[in-house]
Amino acid sequence: MKTPTYSEQTLQKKGFIPAQIPEGLDLKEEILRLKEERNAVLLAHYYQEDDIQDLADFLGDSLYLAQQAARVTADTIVFAGVHFMAETAKIINPSKTVLLPDLKAGCSLADSCPPSDFAAFKSKYPDAIVVTYINCSAEIKALSDIVCTSSNAVRVIESIPEQQPIIFAPDKNLGRYLQKKTGRDLILWEGSCIVHEAFSFDKVVQLFKEHPDAKFIAHPESESPILEIAHYIGSTSGLLKFVEEDSSKKFIIATEAGILHEMQKRCPDKILIPAPVEDDTCACSECAFMKLNTLEKLYTCLKYNAPQIQLDQALIEAAKKPIDRMLALG
Ligand code: 13P
Ligand code: SF4
Fold first, then answer.
1. Domain boundary among 149, 175, 194
2. Which ligand has the nearest atom to the CA of 134?
3. Residue 95, domain extent
4. For FRET with 207, which of 28, 85, 109, 318 sits at 20 to 30 Å CA-CA?
5. 196: CA distance to ligand 2 center in Å?
6. pLDDT per residue over 257-289, tens digit each?
7. 309 lines ligand 2 (CB under 6 A)
8. Strand 40-45 versus strand 58-60 pairing type
9. Given ligand 1 and candidates 62, 112, 137, which is best to mutate, with the most ligand atoms within 8 Å of its CB?
10. pTM for the complete prediction?
């Protein structure tokens, strides 16, 4: 029997609630079966829950997932990540159906840059080139000249002629890091990520005193004092590579805690310690947006072919240009 598919609107009208998942159903097996039936490819970010990471056809950082999305020939991309990532996949490969298990899986950084405010900000610097971090909406990408990720941000900035003024948005922490690394005077938008701003400098220093044999590594979305004491700064894939290749046996890691799953799989003998956060009472080093995707929602999105990322054709065309420029850099 052909599996029925419903539009997101129909599901909403129907007061869509995730399908009753039959008792005893092997969710992982069912996801793999539906994936096959739909001719779908599952892309997952390192911050997804462990089971989702293990089911992925491609697991990686933002740049790798964008590169893979561009290459998909299957009918459907299931994006286990946050909204801007799935949206980017749709922009890059618009003829594909792009599913996001939970459309509410947003991003505090993307939300910190509303398009109308950003357009007004941009208009104050008519001579500036706009470089945007991929963690932003399609509307912001459409206002940009070139997109970057944490993997290639330095390369992107260095590809721009020296005297050219540059606006960098939306992450002020990554922006400050880039200023230091490249010596360029960037015009920064004041956005940030709630997860990477939660790490406590004092507690990291204390933890390091307790583990002097450890290396401290951090994602560049972290605040400057944290980055100043890091032995290594890099994207999620950069952090993974560092842990794999460095001779140390112990690491304190300042990024979303989901990365520890793949890190520990690749380095079973190394001791991995998540960097402490300011507030002991919260799971602040977990991205609540990323964690909105669950195995159950992955199953229901494949079963109903919804929710899908829908974008206006004109927006796709405008947002694609700066992404293509980034992808062309390799
Ligand atoms: P990466 O591109 O390094 O995986 O970062 C994505 C992200 O959202 C970091 O918060
Ligand atoms: Fe956005 Fe921060 Fe979550 Fe990354 S960790 S998706 S930047 S809120």
1. 194
2. 1
3. 8-106+290-311
4. 109
5. 8
6. 999 999 999 999 999 999 999 998 888 899 999
7. no
8. parallel
9. 62
10. 0.94
